[in-house]
């Protein structure tokens, strides 16, 4: 069993909620994950003191591999000269020198791709062809039994609500390529509310039995939630078994001051859904966690 904590859109700066961050740190330790994923927007305006605060928060999370990717807020918006000529300077100094990374833990290969695109798409993001090639090479070297996971800040599928967000350009084409690589799970943020579904919800693909599970986290520690998570905070706990994936969406509640399980989503692993006598057999080997995490 592999357990991941998936958070996003920390937004250290003016919208940051310190009390919620404390609750998140406590919840993350209670989960005891094998890795922590933070899918972008660690800061609000890419300022030094914001990155210092974000780095300090990362230090307090469980002592396991951390997969972190830049978001559009992690490059300067109004400091135009810096955005054009050194957009990731502060991110590289305080968070990570590398923007596209490969993290390997027992049973999983996680490829993180920088979708921030500060020169051409400050809000909506981009994944470039060389990044797709980077992912392909990383997965080609992965053990055959590893689950293959992609992390990017911007979304490949819009949340099914009234906000009407547009996906990244070329999202469908890239999803096709990820499917061909054997990617089973994509983790992201940017939407400021959770969305947990499948790439087949938005694109039928050429292999209609091989969709990719898409998991978006809401904003974990800021006051910038949107749609049904307006003024709310959330993160995900992902449990990966041999046969199934289970994603528990956690929401912060002021009444308890803690993150509580809000919804649970289960998906068979790609090779573990099969037909027998006309009926889909769906062998789950993960337990639904109905207890409060905090």
UniProtKB/TrEMBL annotation:
<dbReference type="InterPro" id="IPR004843">
    <property type="entry name" value="Calcineurin-like_PHP"/>
</dbReference>
<dbReference type="InterPro" id="IPR029052">
    <property type="entry name" value="Metallo-depent_PP-like"/>
</dbReference>
<dbReference type="Pfam" id="PF00149">
    <property type="entry name" value="Metallophos"/>
</dbReference>
<feature type="domain" description="Calcineurin-like phosphoesterase">
    <location>
        <begin position="3"/>
        <end position="193"/>
    </location>
</feature>
<protein>
    <submittedName>
        <fullName>Metallophosphoesterase</fullName>
    </submittedName>
</protein>
<keyword id="KW-0479">Metal-binding</keyword>
<keyword id="KW-0378">Hydrolase</keyword>
<comment type="similarity">
    <text>Belongs to the cyclic nucleotide phosphodiesterase class-III family.</text>
</comment>
<keyword id="KW-0408">Iron</keyword>
<dbReference type="InterPro" id="IPR050884">
    <property type="entry name" value="CNP_phosphodiesterase-III"/>
</dbReference>
